[in-house]
Amino acid sequence: MISKLLTHWTLAFVTVLLITLFHYNNNYIVETARLKSFDLLQQYDKTIHSKDIAIVEIDEQALEAYGQWPWKRSVLSAIIWQLREAGAGIIVLPILFSEYDRLDGDQELLEAIAGNGVVIAQNGSFTANKNGVPRGVAKIGDPLPFLFEWEGMLGPIPEFGEYAEGVGVLNTVPEIDGVVRRLPMLMRVGDAVYPALAIEVIRVAVGEPSYQVKSNQGGIDKMRVPGYPVIQTDSNARVWLRWNKTFDTISASEPEKFPQLEGKTVILGISADGINGIIASPKGGQYNYMPAAVSLQNIMDGDTISRPYWAFLLEIGTTFSVGFLIVILGRFAPYWLAGTSLFVLGGGIVYGVHYAWTNYLYLIDGTMPIVAVVIVGLHAVFARFVLEFFEKQKIKKQFAGYASPTVVRMLQENPALIKEGMKKEVSICFSDLRGFTPLGESFGDDVRGLTNIMNGYMDAITQPVLDMDGMIIKYIGDASMHVHNAPIDDPEHPRTAIQCGLDMLKAVEKFNEKLEKDGRPRVGMGAGINTGLGYLGEMGSTQRHSYDVLGDSVSTAARIESKCKEYGCVLLVGEATYNRTKDDFFWLKVDDLAVKGKSVGIGIWTVLDNVKPAWRVAQRKHEEMHQLYRKQKFQEAIEKCQVLHNHFDGKMSGYYDMWIERCEFMKTQPLPSDWNGVFVATTK
């Protein structure tokens, strides 16, 4: 009897494991079932009519009015001008202009495109050996391995790519069953990154030149257009399409109705039979421009479907735990309770899946847990076997051994502290580009060239931060802010921050080599570092938030950086950072400074590398100069500055010029009896 019960238990448990492993394997059958279950959610989704996007259709009526497709480009030009006169917003042409017009209509269309907020299309190709129009990306990590890759990009003719406000990829990437459910926002050809049509429209609307992408070892974490909320994607930079959107449609042959489109983003899409391609969606056939329209509206609404990083673990855990629970109920509960439990558990799974979708737009797969309910339930109820104590321990061990690595991996990839926030000591660094104006003037009207150079500069100064496990907090125009000791602990973060600052300066020098090779003016960088307590975590509104650090130490670091130009130094460090690292680097005191908003002064220091033996002597003279200044012996301090002017390979010449000027001024000023040499800043 015992043997039979144990045999039945073994079979039931094996069944649970097989179903769990079958789910874990994520094979074609499982993935297809999962995707079809997601389609059911969209079938019953509430319909939302777009107030922001409209479709101007190239339909049968339009073909009858303007002739067979393809139209003369003069016709498209006229439609663009009519839309612009009607007050339309961004005009999207999901049409390829990869060849010159045989009827010489390109110039007319170019004039219509130029300056009219027009975004055109390009297509990825597995055969075309061509390059389209890429877009610059500010990267945290290396996103390229995770992006969908095309062999080539069939872009517009160069003139169209230059004059259009934006160029985005129109292609869709179907799932394994041929249905389009997700759309890549960023794709690659080699090392070049190409945006999807929808995200390119967002970029144009915001007026930004590039994108920001954060990746980790698990894939794409986040992406955004600067000035726009974070766009949640999966690990391959894809967004799930919520196919519940409907749009106002007007035939291209009805320009008298175009005033209805005032302020809306307008997509000029081909819908005439036999011309436009049809793609499969969870809601049936759709025109090939509809994924762009749907994804654009989803992003604009913040109506983003997501499959959370914990979803797969939840599904595996539910499959296993439900199967295990049913086995227990089948053994110890009455038949009626066990049978009722099957319906309750199955209904609970369906309700949970529907609730996650309805309230949070989460995609949770309930197919395999339901299969576990049915198969394991029938098996357990029929077998009615008993679980021995040692078997319970074995199962617990197997469950814990199975779940623990996954939990650890989740915590490693998604630390809870990032979302919950923390208060800890950090080292903050602000940096700012010097010499942008002459650099910008050297490019004239070549905005794209300047953008590429600026992206190259940001890449150069970002890499040292990433190499030292720092965290880029934000880019502010041509400035940046990063922090050390968060989220990864670094006990030596003050030293790390200084070394990182020095490495950033070296990176700028290498960047200047490229500029000089291209005949461009050199640039410089100023950086300010401070150490202190910071408040770290996800901050912002419910619509827009990011990882950030706040606190008095942050504002002090920013104000220290702002003084670089004034002092003629490239790297300034606050007193707290200096005190922790004074034995590790070659230091020169810059000033005792009370930054704006502060009544108490702090020491400001600069650090130099490539130290020469003679510098040690000059360092002592530098200290003597400061002592003379504090003793109000300004003329003697001036004489020391004159002696020191050419020391340190000229790196401090501007500093000593400033100091001489200050001492000359101080000689003429009546000083209070309690004057202590602290310079009080009146500007940030």
Please provide a written account of the structure.
- The protein is of the alpha/beta class.
- The chain has 4 domains: 2-42 and 308-413, no CATH class; 48-301, no CATH class; 416-605, Alpha-Beta Plaits (2-Layer Sandwich), CATH 3.30.70.1230; 610-684, no CATH class.
- It is 45% helix and 22% strand.
- It contains 22 helices and 26 strands.
- β19 (471-476) and β20 (479-484) form a beta hairpin.
- α4 packs parallel to α5, α20 packs antiparallel against α21 (634-644) and α21 (634-644) runs antiparallel to α22 (653-666).
- It is globular, with a radius of gyration of 32 Å.
- The termini are far apart.
Could you provide a short overview of the structure?
The chain is α/β, with parallel strands linked by helices.
**Spans of at least 5 consecutive residues with low confidence:** 1-6, 385-412
**Cα-to-Cα separation, first versus last residue:** 85 Å
- Which structural class best describes the helix and strand composition? alpha/beta
Profile the largest sheet: 9 strands, mixed
- Binned, the helix content reads 40-55%
Any idea what the radius of gyration is? 32 Å
Features:
single chain, 684 residues, alpha/beta, Alpha-Beta Plaits, 7-stranded mixed beta sheet, 22% strand, globular, disordered N terminus
Write the layout of secondary structure elements.
Layout: H1 2-25, H2 28-43, E1 48-58, H3 60-66, H4 73-85, E2 91-93, H5 106-113, E3 118-125, E4 137-140, E5 148-149, E6 152-154, H6 158-163, E7 166-169, E8 182-184, E9 186-189, E10 192-195, H7 197-206, E11 211-216, E12 219-224, E13 238-240, E14 245-251, E15 265-270, E16 278-281, E17 284-287, H8 290-301, H9 311-332, H10 335-360, H11 367-383, H12 389-413, H13 416-420, E18 422-434, H14 436-443, H15 447-467, E19 471-476, E20 479-484, H16 493-517, E21 524-540, E22 545-550, H17 552-562, H18 564-567, E23 571-574, H19 575-581, E24 586-594, E25 602-608, H20 614-630, H21 634-644, H22 653-666, E26 679-680
Helix pairs in contact: 1-9, 1-11, 4-5, 7-8, 9-10, 9-11, 10-11, 15-16, 20-21, 21-22
